[in-house]
């Protein structure tokens, strides 16, 4: 009997409760109450990026692309970096042409050394030239004489073994 009275009391309380808020005449979004795409829901997220140094002004910048596929670009910055390149398409014998480019750049290294490099890039690869690049040591005189002797005296019998 007590259970019946408690259940009846809960039923009467529920029927007297104001449930007008539950029956709103509006269209509900399938995405909940998220803002539409592109709306700014709040403050932007700030990403920390590593300090890449001070901003450097570009003093000169040129870019040209010709209809035949050749191009030229060059720039110079306030901190002394200078770079330029020109290139062109070259027929390679296949369906696709290759690009041949020549260029240079110059800057001052963090140690204060001026760096200047010129390069050629084509079907034979990238070939840089600069005073700062390492070079192979000279061939010792004894090995050089041996190589010259081998070139002057080709082996008579190509089928012999070592």
TrEMBL record:
Keywords: Cuticle, Signal
Presence of keyword Signal: yes
Gene Ontology cellular component annotations, sorted alphabetically: chitin-based extracellular matrix
Organism superkingdom: Eukaryota
GO molecular function, one term: structural constituent of chitin-based larval cuticle
UniProt signal peptide: 1-17
Record InterPro entries: CHIT_BIND_RR_consensus, Cuticle_Struct_Prot, Insect_cuticle
Pfam families per record: Chitin_bind_4
PANTHER family on file: CUTICLE PROTEIN, CUTICULAR PROTEIN 65EA-RELATED
Protein name listed in UniProt: Pupal cuticle protein Edg-78E-like Protein
Protein species of origin: Tribolium castaneum
Designated gene of the protein: AUGUSTUS-3.0.2_14770
């Amino acid at each position: 009997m007590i259970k019946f009275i408690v259940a009846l009391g809960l039923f009467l309380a529920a029927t007297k409760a104001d449930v007008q808020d539950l029956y709103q005449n509006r269209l509900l979004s399938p995405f909940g109450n998220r803002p539409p795409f592109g709306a700014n829901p709040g403050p932007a997220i700030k990403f920390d990026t590593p300090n890449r140094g001070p901003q450097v002004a570009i003093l000169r910048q040129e870019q040209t692309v010709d209809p035949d596929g050749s191009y030229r670009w060059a720039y110079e910055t306030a901190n002394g970096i200078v770079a330029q390149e020109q290139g062109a398409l070259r027929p390679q014998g296949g369906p696709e042409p290759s690009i041949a480019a020549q260029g240079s750049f110059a800057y001052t290294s963090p140690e204060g050394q001026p760096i200047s490099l010129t390069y050629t890039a084509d079907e034979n690869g990238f070939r840089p030239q600069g005073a700062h690049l390492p070079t192979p040591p000279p061939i010792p005189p004894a090995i050089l004489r041996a190589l010259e002797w081998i070139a002057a005296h080709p082996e008579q019998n190509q089928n012999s073994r070592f």
